[in-house]
Amino acid sequence: MAELGARSWAERWGLVGDAAQARRLAGMGHGRMAGFVAPSASSAELELLACWGAFITLVDDGFDRGGEYAPVSEVRAVLDPLVEVLKGTGTGAAVRTPAVAALEDLWRRTVVGTAPGWCARFAASYAFFAEATCEEARWREERYMPSVQEYIGVRRRTITVAPLLLVSERLLDAWPQAEAFHDVCADVVAWTNDLFDAGAEQAGEVGLVDALVRERGVGRGEAAAITRAMVEERLDDFEPAAGRLADSNPHAGDVRSRIDRVRTFLYGAVAWQYESRRYRATLPVQRAPGELAEDPVESAAVRLERRLALAVAPDGALPDRCAGRVLETTLLLALLRAHRTHPEEQRELTCWLGERRAGADPLDALLIDAVLRPQVLPADAADAAAPFADHLVSSTGGRGRLKRSMLHAVLHVLGGLGLNAEDIPPVAFAGALSTFTLANLLAVRIVYAQATDHPHAVSSSERFQLADVLEDGSGRLLWEASAATHLLALNALQSCRPGHPVVGRAVTGLLLARDSGGGMPFLDSQDVWLSAVGGLAFLSRPALRPYAVRMGTFVASWQAPDGGWPFASGIRQTDVDTAARCMEFLHALDPHRYRAHLTRGAAYLAAKAGPEGGLPTWREGDDPDLDMTAGAVLALAPHAAYVRHVTAATRFILDTQRPDGTWDRSWTLSESSVILRAVDALDAASHTSDFNPTRAAAAVARAVARLTATQKPDGSWGRTPDHASDTLSTAQAIPVLARYGPPHVTAAATAHLISRQDDTGRFPAPPDQTGPRPLPFDYPVVADLHALATLTRIQQPRPARSESGAGGTPPPKEQAHAYRFVTAKELE
Length: 828
Description:
Layout: H1 2-12, H2 19-28, H3 30-37, H4 43-61, E1 64-65, E2 68-69, H5 72-87, H6 98-110, H7 118-142, H8 148-158, H9 161-168, H10 178-197, H11 208-216, H12 220-248, H13 253-275, H14 296-311, H15 326-339, H16 343-356, H17 362-372, H18 381-384, H19 386-395, H20 400-415, H21 435-451, H22 460-471, H23 483-496, H24 501-512, H25 527-538, H26 545-557, H27 576-589, H28 595-608, H29 626-636, H30 643-655, H31 671-685, H32 693-710, H33 727-740, H34 743-755, H35 781-794, H36 824-827
Antiparallel strand pairs: 1-2
């Protein structure tokens, strides 16, 4: 509501001049900003804060004319009357412009109920902002290059953090210590912006990275690294100062509350910038140090770690952007058409899909044709979708039939595919379903009922339930961070309750969640999962380990009441994979500090285990999954109280291995991914009392034999032997072979992996994660994290082989690395 209220207010007062400006304002998401920086504020306070954000941004936009900046005289002519409004009685500015009229209205609303002295403090803060903005304009006009210190002082005021912070505190009494904390907040937000803008700065622009390049004589990549280090140092200024202040006022709850408000504002402002697509530019590349050239593995690792260090957000999250995908983009286009809104966005989505039709795989081609050319959708489209539907059934166990119905429902939404009332999925008990499955089931049932003229096949309570489920959002742009589920549910709701307000409000967030190319991604965040995976990789790199400490704080903060973790911050549904990854990371980082989190997490995982020892992804009683079970072993192995669970889970891993050395893939497309997870789990379980080293050694040998036999001539692997080689599959195969395979196989694979590193230090690879299974989705940083972990593990000493062979029982200290390499012939 704050988002729509701010837009309506800006349009009413003439701050939005044309459709392009209106779309730009919509893309900023100032209502989202308000929710991030002041999550506990009332709806009225959130709207007021959003209006301030929109006002400041729109006024500032007037100084930028497509890369050409207004002269300082014009900037002053705009801002001076605004300062007059704030310093006067609220009226009487000499110049009557839309900005002045809008500010007079906004100021009248803002001053109501403010604490004594607040108005004067705010007016002074805005005057500082205006003067600093004029100073920046003068620099551009005169082509003046400020020193780093000059820039920092001015930028602290132009970032607008101080005025917005004061608006959020307008009902609170003056706090003498506030200024220092406000300055830290402003610096961190400003410098983070400058860091991510560095790759897109144009001639005449002034930024911290450029200032550092000139003053210190370094490259842009090195200046970006200095900027990131400065952000970290500034954060280190905040927490000790906050701790000292809190300790000196042990009974003053208000002090802690005020500190928490500023901290929330700081991390919320940066999180909003990430979500609102503010950080889009490619980061500058640091030069690799010449002295490492003789060690190609370490040189590759250093180049990658220097890039990854820049990617960690100030709050410790490792955010990344999921690429747009055909499924979600077609569903968004269908929803906008049904809702009859946003014609320009419809055109963009149509172009996006049209550009991808020529190179689309069969499923994507079917979806694109269904939404762009529904008149040519064949009557037997269900038959055309049969291969994909059958694969869905076979790859997702008990949920497979629902997935097939989902695919047919999608084709109906996109192109009017005829549905059969007999195929309506049955009702299920909501308490036994994950949030995603519940929403998908309700949506599919409603689509089928509407499409087959059997509306009474779905109860009215189910229709209301779907709306309630969508209303009970997590606060993310996408419901539970998932566009696939969100869009299918919204299309279903639109079909049975056209014009429902939930749909209109959701469209606002959906359009904000599109990727840089305009496509709709599967997820709008995976930050908790990525931070746990990344944090574990960072711990083995001295240059990255300091970032891991803050990453641990972020991960721990998102543990849910049930003891598990969600894959994205702010969503409700926890899952076994994320919980296991978070526990593995926190235990490696500091098991004492996080002992309470680990204890609750262990109980969460243990409760999910089935009678055969396997663990599912979401809810107890679901089909067990190898990846989840292996992750649980890695997480529970350090906890003596859960030896029984580790033993049962290990037995499940051994029982489910195929004769060819592989395991079922579910949430991954790569054989080597699941092999690595299983072998790591067997290593971790080797210390348990009931561990069977003979059977485990044979299982590892089969896995190694599979990898050795399927290695391609260039030293790489593909997702399967039938797929082309890719960097991610190769990176996940190497750690297994580095421990238990022939050295020449590892050497060839390592050489190939290093050769795939690009000029920016990254390791590009096709996506490996799937969702909804088996559809791939792409978070590019995943390949980088696996590559970093692999490059680090390659350099670790190769474990000694047991003299007793595959069937011997090694001494306890050697059990974890006791499997010697066994050939395929020996296994026969």
